[in-house]
Amino acid sequence: MREVAQFVMFWGLSFLSLGLAFILLNIYFGWIGRGLGLRNTKSELVIAGAASFVEGGSLWLIMTFFPLATRAMIVPLIIVALIYKITHFENYWSRFDIGMLLAFQTIIIFVTIPLIFGRFSKTELLLLLGFVILLVVIGLINDLSER
């Protein structure tokens, strides 16, 4: 029973971080003047549920059976990227869009984990680092679009 609870917790956390990443990415793309071609809410929730199932299930498998193999999380990230590339094929999602989605989700996870465990100094540093990276990307996008 404990394993099922852990799996559901990992799946739920993956779903929440993915949903928050979508919200922030939509705001971010609106801020830089670029649209994020999303489907309707129901379709996006189904896609996010499937993608977070892959992420949460993979995290559960790795943490339960192979706790020292955390580098193996690159495989579910590639699968999630493929899920979003295939499901948003007609919207012409580029590698940049998918990479930014996974980057936002990663930043959200790396910021919330120290907050949960009370490591506020690391959280502030990670927030600042994420903000600086986003500003650099904004500058690069604006510079490339002006050419």
Explain this structure to me?
- The protein is an all-alpha fold and 147 residues long.
- It has one domain (2-146).
- It is built from five helices and no strands.
- The protein has helices at 2-31, 41-65, 74-87, 95-117, 120-146.
- The longest helix has 30 residues, at 2-31.
- It is globular.
- The model has no long low-confidence stretch (mean pLDDT 82).
Quick summary:
The protein has helices spanning 2-31, 41-65, 74-87, 95-117, 120-146.
Coarse shape = globular
How many domains make up the coordinates? 1
Radius of gyration: 16 Å
Q: List SSEs in N-to-C order.
A: HHHHH
Number of beta-strand segments: 0
Structural class by sheet pairing and helices = mainly alpha
Q: What's the story with the biggest beta sheet?
A: none
Low-confidence stretches: none
Per DSSP, what share of the residues sits in E-state strands of 2 or more residues?
under 5%
- Count of helical regions: 5
The helical percent reads: over 70%
The average pLDDT score comes to 82
Termini separation comes to 58 Å
